[in-house]
Amino acid sequence: MKMNKLSIYFLALLAAGVMLSSCKDDEGEKNQENFDTQIEALALTLKWNNYLQAASEELYEDCVKLYAAWAGPTALSDEEMEIVGGSTFFADLGHPNGYAASVKNPETPEHSVEETLVQGSIDIAGEVGEQKIGGPNQLAKDGQTAQAVLEVESWYSFNSLDDYANNIVSIRNSYFGGRGATTAQTASLSEFVHGKNAALDAEIIAAINGAYNAIKAMDAPFRSHLTGAKVDTAMDACGDLATIFEGQLIPFVQENADEDAYTAILQKYADEIVVATYEDMKNEAKALRDAVRAFVATPSQNSLNAAADAWRATRIPWEQSESFLFGPADLLGLDPSLDSWPLDQRDIHTILTDNKQSVAEIREEIGEESVRGFHTIELLLFKDGKPRVVKQ
To answer: Rounded distance, CA 292 to CA 295, Å?
Structure first.
């Protein structure tokens, strides 16, 4: 069974020796400071930079695999086909023409709309409100501020609120049938709902916009503003969004089953939302890898800043994909590989201090989910919300 991020977080803290129920908050803070001191002493050393390159190369290859699994073999370049390991990759996946082909031609389209587009939106709306915002909020209310900060995803870069807002954009894109769309597109679920129940469509749109706007209204960085009316409003708005999808949209989809309309919706969803998002992420991840390589080859503040900017750019399509983490992201274990949180700082420190120095050697070491992916790269690139300072 896949653990949620909150469960992983508690286990990681216990492994680090932080007793959540019995330790005082200042003890947890001191423990974190000790780890920070140990790791910061190694910042931007040769091994650090090689670890950064190794992690960025792994991230790019994971993004290629995710795109390939959806798009199918005919969409890949020779380089990308080599990364995934050829046609056996698709045979092992069980979708020789790519997962999108299966989504676009389901045996029961009405259930596919419900179980993919609608249920995925419910899942991420609930996760944003209850875990990503609600987890740190509750710990802070309980007086465990140090632990609360540790649970805030993307707190190294202060990217948290952008992440959460892009999760809602993921829902909005799926419902409107277009990346960046703010109104219903042809062959979208919004268009279908509006044609049969304009009032319901208006309520859903209001709920999507309400959650997005409430998150954007929160004070940044989230790690420094974990409680308060704005945070409560955002959690409530995410809950309202999940509720209307579950309580009203699912029954509507079930009661108004239309095979032709649902097939058209799924075809557009698979091609223009899912595959297009993963293609963007794959391309941005390649730009990140190349920016990191340039920094490692010639370390400078400008080249580090470029790598940090590339990390933020890659983060956008990833967060905008979180309403469709079913299928390959789950089957191939790519969600935790790309976005495991929190990091295992003890193991990261061990990797940074062992005798293996080269990029190739480090890549062999970082198979564990909690020492790779977006957030390992984030830790290595950022400090206190800004790109690290390169000393000349």
So the answer is: 5
Contacts 24+ apart (CB under 8 A), 181-189: 185/268, 186/268, 187/261, 187/264, 187/265, 187/267, 187/268, 188/265, 188/268, 189/113, 189/117, 189/118, 189/265
What's the rounded Cα separation, in Å, for the pair 162 and 299?
28
- Per the CB < 8 A criterion, the answer to whether 216 and 231 are in contact is no
pLDDT of residue 4: 41
The pTM score is 0.92
Of 281, 311, 287, 274, nearest to 387 by C-alpha is 311
To the nearest whole percent, how much of the chain has pLDDT over 90? 86
Q: Which residues contact 120 (CB under 8 A, 6 or more apart)?
A: 174, 323, 324, 325, 326
Q: Among 324, 320, 319, which residue's Cα sits nearest to residue 269?
A: 324
pLDDT-derived band at 26 (thresholds 50, 70, 90) equals low
* Nearest-angstrom CA–CA distance, 100 and 84: 17
Strand-pair category, 382-383 with 386-387: antiparallel
Q: Is the dihedral of CA 125, 131, 134, 136 positive or negative?
A: negative
Count of other CB atoms within 10 angstroms of residue 234: 29
